[in-house]
């Protein structure tokens, strides 16, 4: 943990990770205090492959469970006009700091959004997001129904939803909860860290470890979709 410098396109994003943000009840360090490798994967993916199919210029972007906020900050660098980074309240000061140190305060704001909370998501009633980003949020099966509820609330018909995840033994079960809520889950092709990509120079992106990550497109409920088999 500390200060990380992440190459995104032709720019360096500075990300401060937190060392002392703990849950006041359990005393455990909150998982959003530091950058997870999925956020590096999603940042690189959107800066290379994602931008080929989605023009970030003047788009509005929401990041759920943002942690340190790397994917959302990447979207701002790529031209998004408004980015909202969200997480639980305790993590918001760290997110605000990461927005400020990168000089992106004119385009990026930070808000609390607790999955499943009507009160929390009602603050987003007037928002109209073109893209929702999530990295490493398919983590706790108990949270997936709440995440699905929030996704249904904040997206509109045309909103694109991209998520990167480390593929763990229980990732498929987490995704199945979203499928049971009506979402389609499609694994997107990714060529991360390869010679064709503009890798962000992070050492974990060796070919072996990249097999452990996947990028997904989440299709909205009630649209024809196919669920990709991901956890063989
Ligand atoms: C594994 S961390 C990933 C953090 C960050 N996206 C990354 O990839 O570096 C999971 C994130 O989801 C957030 N999260 C978990 N449950 C949540 C909930 N019910 N409402 C809002 N955020 C939640 C956590 O606070 C944390 O930031």
Automatic annotation (TrEMBL):
The gene is LOC115970710. Gene3D superfamilies: Vaccinia Virus protein VP39. SUPFAM superfamilies: S-adenosyl-L-methionine-dependent methyltransferases. This is Uncharacterized protein. It comes from the Eukaryota.
């Amino acid at each position: 943990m500390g200060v990380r410098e992440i190459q995104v396109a032709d720019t360096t994003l500075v990300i401060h990770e937190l060392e002392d943000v703990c849950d006041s009840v359990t005393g455990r360090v909150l998982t959003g205090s530091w950058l997870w490798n999925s956020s590096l994967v999603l940042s690189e993916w959107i800066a290379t492959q994602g931008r080929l199919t989605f023009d970030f210029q003047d788009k509005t972007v929401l990041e759920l469970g943002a942690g340190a906020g790397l994917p959302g900050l990447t979207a701002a660098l790529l031209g998004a006009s408004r980015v909202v980074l969200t997480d639980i309240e305790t993590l918001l000061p760290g997110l605000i700091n990461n927005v400020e140190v990168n000089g992106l305060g004119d385009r990026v704001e930070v808000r609390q959004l607790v999955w499943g909370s009507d009160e929390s998501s009602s603050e987003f009633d007037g928002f109209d997001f073109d893209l929702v980003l999530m990295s490493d949020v398919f983590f706790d099966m108990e949270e997936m129904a709440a995440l699905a509820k929030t996704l249904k609330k904040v997206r509109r018909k045309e909103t694109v939803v991209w998520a990167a995840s480390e593929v763990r033994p229980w990732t498929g079960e987490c995704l199945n909860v979203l499928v049971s809520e009506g979402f389609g889950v499609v694994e997107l092709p990714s060529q991360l860290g390869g010679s064709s990509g503009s890798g962000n120079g992070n050492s974990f992106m060796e070919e072996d470890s990249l097999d452990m990550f996947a990028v997904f497109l989440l299709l909205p409920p009630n649209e024809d979709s196919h669920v990709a088999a991901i956890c063989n």
